[in-house]
């Protein structure tokens, strides 16, 4: 039988050769090995530094994070910028409340905002009052201190949309984000004012007709034009057409029409209608969201009516995307029977995503609700810093681990990073440190942010190796014909592919 040994060796060689030939020619299989190696090394490095906050910060700052899907434009700006712009504009600042207002100023109670730049103590007080820089003060709750900022800065914010967009985009680039869905009101309150003048009609269909023929169509086309101008100035501000553009120029921005839900019903409906109309007609506006404190009197009192408005308009504009602030509530803020907004926003408001979702475990049949969210793919935009400073919900009191346990899609978002003095990296740090999450779990947040974005087109299925493009090497410089077709046809898939490239490059460093 000795003579059989060379034959066996030859057969073994042939088998190994065919195995090698098969895997070498099966390009996707080959790339799988390369990607996994980078991912595993990166995950190992992450575990080695996870208890060292500064190294963890540096790692997470560099980590590609996809999108921030929950960020308000006026809350994204730091107080320093508001004070600077108010001074440039010749606005006044109230010595007591620190609110900006139009001139004329006086030197006693309402001096020019420029005086805050020359008085160190006054300046510090302005920054503290117009953000959570030193937390809340004078017995004021974090909730009240936080929300009070928006009316104080509105006089200056109304004049600086381009600069605000530039600041948000530039900071997003620093945090290695590719995409923002920014909430703001492109018509600057014109739809709400029109509603106040035309009044309420119990017949929503008639009210829609009255609004569209009574000036709302004009308001919507004006809003699109002012968005054109704002984006043009923003790009100039960031030198996007110059040889050395601001890194923020590479960040893609889309908008969510922001509806102020705390106003009277005759002012809320026209805003929701304007949001649907703009999202249906202008590709830059990808959906709408209802904002303002969810525990405000009218937010609570008219909540069911707001869901009815969304339900009615959704039947007319079924393709328009809806994401809703829901469950940004605690038993301290509202009576327990008011803790039902997550479920109602999904079932009656047609929300495809939920902002915050903090009260989920206090809602009716929470386990059934969690399963429903997982099955229907309702993503939660988790805002850890915001929930901490506004609601005082943090650590084990936050439902993030429960959402993960039940397979509900989740991503991390900043909400109002300027007011909260935070950024997207801080959100990832908080998640990693508080909930002991792994690199792979954090990477899932980044991928989910784009998979559940409202960008147009079919997406790459999250982390699904069997999908089109799923087994391609993002750094290979070429893709299969099927993958190329998908990328050409879908804005969402292209953005996801950019993330895959960034992730592969990032993981290649470890
Ligand atoms: Zn928000």
Task: List key phrases describing it.
single chain; 510 residues; alpha/beta; TIM Barrel; 8-stranded parallel beta sheet; two-stranded antiparallel ribbon; 23 helices; 55% helix; globular; binds zinc ion
Report on the architecture of this protein.
With 510 residues, this protein is α/β, with parallel strands linked by helices. It folds into 3 domains: 28-60 and 469-510, no CATH class; 66-74 and 160-451, TIM Barrel; 79-157, no CATH class. The chain is built from 23 helices and 10 strands. The protein has helices at residues 4-25, 27-49, 53-62, 73-76, 79-89, 114-117, 120-129, 142-157, 161-174, 190-198, 204-237, 265-281, 297-301, 303-316, 341-347, 366-376, 384-391, 400-405, 417-420, 424-435, 439-451, 481-489, 491-507; strands at residues 66-72, 92-93, 100-101, 177-184, 252-260, 285-291, 321-326, 353-356, 379-382, 410-412. The strands form 2 sheets. Strands 1-4-5-6-7-8-9-10 form an 8-stranded parallel beta sheet. The protein has a two-stranded antiparallel sheet with strand order 2-3. Helix 12 (265-281) links the parallel strand 5 and strand 6. Helix 5 runs parallel beside helix 8 (142-157) and helix 12 (265-281) runs parallel beside helix 14 (303-316). The relative contact order is 0.12. Zinc ion binds next to strand 1.
């Amino acid at each position: 039988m000795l003579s059989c040994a060379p034959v066996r060796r030859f057969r073994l060689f042939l088998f190994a050769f065919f195995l090698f030939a098969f895997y070498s020619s099966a390009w996707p299989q080959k790339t799988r090995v390369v990607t996994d190696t980078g991912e595993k090394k990166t995950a190992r490095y992450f575990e080695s530094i996870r208890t060292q906050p500064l190294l963890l910060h540096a790692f997470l700052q560099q980590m590609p994070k996809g999108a921030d899907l929950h960020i308000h434009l006026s809350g994204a700006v730091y107080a320093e910028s508001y004070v600077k712009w108010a001074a440039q504009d010749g606005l006044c600042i109230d010595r007591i409340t620190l609110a900006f207002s139009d001139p004329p100023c006086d030197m006693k109670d309402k001096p020019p905002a420029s005086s805050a730049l020359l008085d160190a103590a006054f300046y510090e007080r302005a920054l503290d009052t117009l953000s959570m820089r030193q937390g809340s003060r004078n017995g004021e709750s974090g909730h009240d201190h936080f929300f009070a900022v928006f009316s104080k800065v509105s006089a200056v914010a109304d004049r600086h949309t381009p600069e605000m967009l530039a600041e948000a985009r530039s900071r997003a680039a620093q945090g290695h984000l590719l995409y923002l869905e920014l909430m703001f009101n492109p018509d600057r309150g014109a739809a709400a004012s029109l509603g106040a003048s035309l009044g309420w009609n119990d017949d929503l269909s008639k009210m829609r007709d009255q609004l569209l023929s009574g000036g709302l169509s004009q308001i919507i086309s004006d809003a699109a034009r002012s968005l054109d101008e704002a984006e043009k100035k923003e790009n100039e501000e960031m030198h996007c057409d110059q040889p050395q553009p601001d890194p923020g120029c590479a960040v893609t921005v889309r908008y969510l029409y922001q509806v102020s839900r705390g106003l009277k019903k005759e002012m809320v409906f026209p805003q929701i209608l304007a949001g649907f109309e703009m999202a249906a007609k202008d590709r830059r506006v990808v959906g709408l969201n209802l904002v303002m404190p969810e525990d405000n009197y009218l937010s609570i009192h008219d909540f069911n009516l707001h869901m009815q408005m969304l339900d009615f308009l959704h039947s007319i504009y079924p393709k328009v995307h809806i994401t809703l602030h829901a469950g940004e509530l605690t038993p301290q803020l509202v009576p327990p029977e008011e803790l039902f907004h997550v479920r109602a926003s999904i079932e009656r408001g047609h929300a495809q995503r939920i902002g915050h979702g903090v009260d989920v475990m206090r809602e009716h049949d929470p386990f059934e609700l969690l399963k429903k969210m997982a099955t229907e793919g309702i993503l939660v935009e988790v805002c850890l810093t915001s929930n901490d400073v506004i609601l005082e919900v943090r650590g084990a009191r936050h439902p993030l681990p429960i959402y993960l346990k039940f397979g509900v899609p989740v991503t991390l978002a900043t909400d109002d990073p300027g007011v909260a003095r935070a950024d997207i990296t801080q959100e990832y740090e908080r998640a990693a440190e508080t909930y002991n999450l792994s690199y792979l779990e954090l990477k899932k947040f980044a991928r989910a942010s784009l998979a559940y974005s409202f960008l147009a087109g079919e997406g790459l299925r999250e982390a699904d190796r069997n999908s089109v493009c799923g087994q391609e090497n993002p750094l290979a410089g070429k893709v299969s014909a099927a993958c190329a077709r998908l990328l050409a046809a879908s804005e969402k898939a292209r953005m996801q592919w950019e993330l895959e490239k960034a992730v592969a490059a990032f993981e290649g460093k470890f």
